[in-house]
Amino acid sequence: MNSYGPPVMSIFRSAGLKTRIDQDIQIGLPCLPSASSDEYLGIIRSWVEICDFQHKDSTCQQLSRGSSASSSYHRRLPTRVISVGTKGDPTVKLLETTPSDIGEWVALSHQWGRGPQFSTTRQNLPHHIQGIRMDQLPATFRDAVTVTRALGRPYLWIDSLCVIQGKDGDFDQEAKRMEQVYSGAYCVLAASRSPGHYAGFLQPRQANDSVTMQRDGDSAPFYIREAIDDFQQHVLEGGLNQRGWVLQEHALARRTVYFTDYQTYFECGNGVHCETMTKMTNDLAAFLGDPNFPRIIMGADQGEKILRYQDLYKRYSRLGLSNPSDRAVAINGLQERILHALGVEGGFGVFFEDTKDGRGRGLLRRSLLWCRASDTIALSRVYVPDHRTASKAPSWSWMAYTGGIDYIAPNFGDMDWEEIQSPWDAKPGLRDDMLLVAAARDYETDDEDGNLVFDDPESPAQLPLKCVVLGKQKGRTPVKEKLHYLLVVQERNGRYERVGAGYLPGRCIHGTAKKIIIH
User: Fold this and answer.
1) Distance of CA 165 to the CA centre of its chain
2) Which residue numbers delimit the Heterokaryon incompatibility domain (predicted)?
3) Structural domain boundaries of the chain?
């Protein structure tokens, strides 16, 4: 209907239509059921049950711990869950579990929104354990309880209720368990249409017009309706998916139900299913929606894997966080999955695979060659409260800053990498403090053949700078003409910190090398 963009109309038929072309027309309904109706909740339930009983191959079933985690590991309940009861129960209860408690739970992915938050604190914890009235719950949480009950699952996990908030809470401990919470959930409910706790996601959707058509002699009608199947715009580019925590929630979930303003979508390892009965595919959805993320690209060569993970980190760096200090922890579960899949060490957005023969050096050094993105004016250092020092990233990690990043990308197979000591091959003191040990030298800029990108373009002139060469081009070209890929460092209050990255020809780098520690 429109060859220059997405479809503007969709054609559906009823199951009883019999014509010469009925097999070419998708079965569908003239209008979608009312959100929260029994018919609507039945559709969601049928999606999950079909996945349970028909998707028996590994695309929808979590693998053993060799690739993800064992089933018993994932059935262990989170530290706290909400016991939802059954339909009509006036209250729900917060349940504190023990390591031996097992069961199935549904997890909610949502935006907190602005203003006062409905959450569990040390002060109201006893009250929440005793019971919370349904009419006291914010609409988004109440709707999540409704869907969980309809799915026949006993427990619901909501971060603001199941993690104790505040300075005396247990956020730091629970943040480390997000991989288990989301990958172990029976399914995840994504409140894509809800901007906050009090908005809800089962309210009426955007109306879409349809026309019923039936020719004389046809056994049943068919329908023409405004096209509303747009997973990319409704979900991947929607407000919820612009939040930092949601990227890992999407990637770690076994399967997810997305509630949008237009319709509801169900995503599992078998693809994306629409409420209109359309089945869709999407490359990014397939990558992030893999129940055993990142298995889908494990057959790729090392270069492609690196590029994929860099793309993932670039995407995450542009997402929003209510608390910028969550920058390092909001993706930690996803990072642990990636490190395990690669069989390497690392942290704070950096991978380490140095081997005795030096062949693995590129992974660490390419991880360090991030830079401020061209669409970001300046990177700002993240303030981390004293009680959360464990999540404070070092200056050489992009997780220490807010703002979008990119990567400087030397050609694969074209680099001689330099010696550098990382926290993962260092003595315990360096590992604990996340320090890099490297050789620093003086440099001069070269606008013609070099390129340096500073985290804050206004800062370089303030204090003397040095460079740390991570690697240089191979080949017979004279060293002074070879491009040297490097970090720019600056001494502040007696300690060196990274302030930029880039590349310069060898002739621009001079002076005696000085061993430094980069914090």
Assistant:
1) 22
2) 105-249
3) 9-295, 359-518
